[in-house]
Amino acid sequence: MTTARLIALDQILFVLVAAAWAATAGIALTGLRQPAAAGRRTLLIAAASCAAAIVMTALRVAVTAGLAGAGWWFVAEKVTLALPLVVVPALVSAAVSLPRLLRGTATGSTGGSTAGSARVVAFPLLVTAYGAVAGIACGVVISYPVTSGGAATVLALFAAASAVTWRLLGPARSPRHAWQAAGTCVLALALALTIGGGWPSGHLHTGHDTGGRGVSVDLLRGPAPASAGGPAGARERIRRFTLTAQPATVRLPSGAGAEAWSFNGQVPGPVLRVRQGDLVEVVLRNRLPVQGGSGQETTGQPNPGQPNTGQGVTIHWHGYDVPAAEDGVPGVTQDAVWPGQTHVYRFRAEDAGTYWYHSHQNSSVAVPRGLFGLLVVDPATPVPESEDHVLALHTFGSRPTLSVDGAAPSDLLTRLTLPPGARTRLRVVNTDTQPVVLGLSGAPYRIAAVDGGDVPGATDLDGARLHLAAGGRYDLTFTVPSGPVLLTAGDRPTLLVNGPATPPPAAGPVVDITRYGTPAALPARFDRETTWVLDKTLAVSGGLPRLAQTVNGKAWPNIPTPVVRQGETVRIRVVNRGTDTHPMHPHGHHVRILSRNGVPATGLPMDTFDVAPGEVWEVALVADNPGVWMSHCHDLAHAAQGMEFHLAYEGVSTPYDMTNGNHPA
Ligand code: C2O
Ligand code: CU
User: Fold this and answer.
1) Region entry Disordered: which residue ranges (predicted)?
2) Whose CA, among 48, 196, 277, 580, lies 20 to 30 Å from 639?
3) Ligand 1: does its nearest atom lie under 6 Å from the Cβ of 369?
4) Sorting pLDDT into bands at 50, 70 and 90, what band is 228?
5) Distance of alpha carbon 272 from the chain centroid
6) Are strands 215-216 and 652-653 parallel, antiparallel or unpaired?
7) How many CB atoms lie under 10 A from the CB of residue 12?
């Protein structure tokens, strides 16, 4: 059974186990209080329920043992806390309560007084039920690593409930005792929370824990153009673009429509196509409406004295490893650009390939609403394909769409005519927050590039399908056959080349991208290691405890920042303990995939890699781009629910923080 299945089964089981023990205890208590004849029947049901609960508990132990095979991260809190809390009282129940229940079914009496038998028979059953419920609490409150605060909270609740029950099951007492018991219980909980310090770790109110020392990220800029004092005499080509954030309406061919935020009135924004070596200069202007205002461009300079209103914007160059100051993350590398303001980005287009750009202010809202576009860097020596098209997949509302070469998106089948025999490259960009399964049928094809980088030794695929992570890119190449070619996205026909006939959609197996291409020489020595355990846990997020998307048990901004030193090779292990897929996206770097679930990978460099539930990925990051970088899940809703943190270089600091309305997710 896969790890993901075991995780799902475990979640079902721990509810069933708790329900079974609670039911057993309830039925037993009822039976003990009934007159002999009726009591006998009830106790029989209780005994059967007890036996079932024992079996289910054993099953939980077995599932945990299975999960342990995938790694300690998946079971730490179960082995140290959740299981002992249910297994130990379950053994007592099996040894003490069950035989007495069975005796009761024969005689109608478990022996002894009613109160005495309640304590002997029902108490172990109730405590087992509490242990099972505490196990559920563990699953919600504790992730990996197990924290003393979380453990203390669970243990205190368990102990308090058991103590109160012991008193309540005893001989009748004055109501004062009940109040004392309840008081003790509340005190114990308060104590546990105090000892555990709740969940937040105190620092990081502004979103960083790298301190204020070191070179400011602000100084790590892209090159100035030669005309502005850059390298004298450099014969560089400067490509200038202006991107104006402004409202727009998307009208889809099916008739559906959506209110959007756009760059330059088009959604997606303009395709920025430059050549390797160019100096790219992009002026961002925000003309989104000010709340209650007209959106008129004002002086254009940030005014820290004024509250920032309306929708701020930035531009992040997704997958493009620009200098840190050009990375476009509000609160980390700049302040959000508010309506009326402008900001200039400048970077050298050093790497060829397919990339995209998007706003990073309130990105979980802004990107789905349309503040994105594609960036293509043509190699200095041209690609061999004469036909070269960029495809943006994006969902507006609930309508999946395709935009070809920056044209208006279509939620119906898009048609393209290409000359038979032409070498063709389709650059497919997933701008959604969910992964998509692609299929290309009608011609054998290759994945020529992944996340912008060429794939060495790309082999022909025929009818195979591909899993493309949210934010990821594949360049697909093929020779146009005499017949039609069909591209499907999420099993939906989306692009038809040379119709009208339609080939059957690709239905082959899904390619394991981590094993595609020729294996590269991979680093074997690492200067540093770090582990990111992804989960959905109760954590403080947005100032309140809530079920959050967590990394090592904490949510933004309480996730400690991994710090690296320039030049180091870092091994990052990413473990997904949860039930959601997480497309992890460290900014400023491509990572080489070393292995997935222990199976060695070919080492393709990626900037967005999809860690499915139960998976363990190992990737290598070479710290060659100093900065304070954002690192997050590109299911942007998950980022907004806490799954974002930093990667910082020693000696680099940032003057920006989460004040001034900066809100990266
Ligand atoms: Cu496209 Cu921080 O992401
Ligand atoms: Cu996620």
Assistant:
1) 215-235, 288-310
2) 196
3) no
4) low
5) 28
6) parallel
7) 10
Which pLDDT belongs to residue 306?
A: 52
Q: Kindly indicate the confidence band of residue 354, based on its pLDDT and cuts at 50, 70 and 90.
A: very high
**Ligand 1, closest atom to CA 356?**
1
Other CB atoms within 10 Å distance of the CB of residue 115:
13
β-bridge mates for residue 372, sequence order: 358
For the beta carbon of residue 49, count every other beta carbon within 10 angstroms: 21
Residue 490 alpha carbon to ligand 1 centre in Å = 22
Q: Is 632 in the pocket of ligand 1 (CB under 6 A)?
A: yes
* Pairwise CA distance, residues 294 & 303, whole Å: 18
CA 348 to chain centre: 30
Over range 167-184, report the average pLDDT. 74
pLDDT at 301 > cutoff 50: no
Tokens of 310: 């309306």
Cβ–ligand 1 contact at 646 (below 6 Å): no
Q: What are phi and psi of 80, to 5 degrees?
A: -85, -20
Express each pLDDT in 74-98 by its tens digit.
999 999 999 999 999 999 999 999 9
SS3 content of the chain, % helix, strand, coil (to 5): 30, 30, 40
pTM: 0.91
Query: Which domains occur in the chain, in start order?
Result: 3-195 (no CATH), 237-381 (2.60.40.420), 383-393+403-511 (2.60.40.420), 519-653 (2.60.40.420)
